[in-house]
Design brief:
The protein is globular and about 70 Å long. The strands form two sheets. A six-stranded parallel β-sheet has the order 1-2-3-4-5-6. A two-stranded parallel ribbon has the order 7-8. The protein folds into two domains: 3-298, Aldolase class I (TIM Barrel), CATH 3.20.20.70; 312-409, no CATH class. It is built from 15 helices and eight strands. Helix content is 38%, strand content 9%. Helix 2 (88-100) packs across helix 3 and helix 7 (233-244) packs parallel to helix 8. It has 421 residues and is an alpha/beta fold. Helix 3 (117-134) links the parallel strand 2 and strand 3. Residues 40-45, 47-52, 385-389 and 408-421 have low confidence and may be disordered.
């Protein structure tokens, strides 16, 4: 690998690192026609897949030159940073060389916008076409769709890649225009809708013609920047819930604002990256998708922002004492699932196990319930043998605010997601 390519790689990999919307796949692409590589639906990400495999993904920009001047973006037009750009063939060949050296298993490709959205999209598609048709590469590819690109180019890309993402960046139109005057939500939502519609049509086509190529089999994702503007957690999660109503939307990612561009009067002064808030939003996102919570239960007019001292599930439980105690041996799966310290896996095991015997605290411990958290909210067969604390909400909060989330042995981060909570 020559020095020129290495220099470009260093610059463009650095420029791509703030996009977190690329951690999991959910796509299966089998090797065929003596090609190279394959993709597994169990997931591909920067660190670990859902089944525990350690894999790597080349995350890179085609170019970090950009005609837009978004205040929050390190690659904005007015920022004084080293610039570089690959040709489509250079990036395709680099990907294959890394794959053959066993450095990577897939590719995440994005780009600054050069000349026009269509011109940029065409060049990224050219990279993928070289990989798929000339190198017969069947590995996982995630492409960042360019807002403003034509529907035809979105269609072409979707038949070649496994997942596409269109980043919302700023949750509200007003604040987006403040920080990114060249963008608007209309141009962002249009490719989102196009990907969704094409995916639904492709599913119907494949029912009739099984040989029809798949369109973004791993769906789409998006990212919102948190802390650069004044949106409340309620506004962010309401938008998240709307996005998840589309079956094609697999993940919404939250990226704490990082001041990478020096002083700009449009941006807030941030001493530390708001990692705690970012983490709480991921936890709330998990409640929406897997725990049957509504947005209004997590955040509402009275509590517009998430409590940073405890996780949102515990915060909800403390605010709703009328829901408790939950009888582990009698109450429904839905009620048990809402107990802090009990995850999806544990709740299912409880419902199965209690068919055969009355469950005790010791049995709950063996199942995997985090009793330090759950003890405040449940009753079970031998409750007299276990000290149930008739405690105030403040005492519970203080007792558990530093307790790690261990339900189903899971903690989720934006780049490393492990199931359950």
């Amino acid at each position: 690998m020559n020095e020129k390519i290495i220099a470009k790689l260093e610059i463009l990999a650095e420029s791509a690192k703030y996009d977190v919307s690329c951690s999991s796949s959910g796509s299966t692409r089998r090797n065929k026609n003596k090609g190279i590589g394959s993709a597994s639906k169990s997931g591909i990400c920067h660190t670990f897949t859902a089944d525990g495999r350690c894999v790597s993904l080349l995350k890179i920009m085609l170019t970090n030159y950009c005609m837009f001047d978004c205040a929050y973006c390190i690659n904005r037009q007015s920022n004084d940073i080293p610039r570089a750009g690959f040709t489509p063939r250079e990036l395709a060949d680099l990907t294959i060389e890394f794959y053959r050296r066993n450095y990577i298993e897939g590719l995440f490709i994005s780009s600054g916008i050069v000349r026009s959205p269509d011109h940029t999209m065409e060049r990224m598609i050219r990279v993928v076409k070289i990989l798929r048709t000339e190198h017969h590469f069947n590995g996982y590819i995630h492409m960042k769709a360019i807002p403003g690109a034509s529907d035809e180019l979105i269609n072409q890309a979707g038949l070649l890649v496994d997942r596409m993402s269109v980043n919302l960046e700023i949750p509200t139109e007003e604040n987006l225009k403040l920080l990114a005057p060249d963008k608007d939500h209309k141009s962002i939502y249009q490719p989102m809708r196009q990907i969704h519609q094409n995916l639904l049509e492709n599913i119907e086509d494949r029912k009739k013609f099984k040989s029809a190529p798949k369109f973004v089999p791993a769906g789409q994702s998006t990212q919102m920047i948190i802390g650069a503007t004044d949106e409340s957690d309620k506004q962010i999660l309401q938008l998240t819930a709307k996005l998840y109503k589309r079956p094609s939307m697999k993940r919404v990612y939250y990226s704490g604002f990082v001041p990478v561009n020096g002083y700009d009067k449009r941006l807030p002064v941030v001493q530390d990256v708001p990692r705690v808030r970012e983490n709480r939003l991921y936890q709330a996102d998990w409640l929406l998708r897997f725990y049957d919570f509504n947005v209004d239960e997590i955040v509402n007019d009275r509590y517009p922002d998430l409590d940073l001292t405890v996780d949102p599930k515990l915060s909800w439980a403390i605010r709703n004492p009328q829901f408790f105690p939950v009888d582990i041996n009698r109450d429904s799966y839905q009620k048990i699932l809402r107990v802090p310290g009990i995850g999806v896996k544990s709740a299912k095991l409880i419902v199965m196990a209690r068919r055969h015997r009355r469950l005790t605290f010791e049995a709950l411990k063996r199942i995997g319930v985090v009793l330090k958290r759950a003890q405040f909210f449940i009753i079970c067969h031998d409750m007299k043998k276990f000290k149930i604390l008739d405690s105030s909400a403040e005492y519970i909060k203080l007792s558990l605010q530093d307790t790690p989330l261990l339900e189903d042995k899971a903690i989720y981060q934006p780049q490393q997601l492990v199931m359950g909570w």
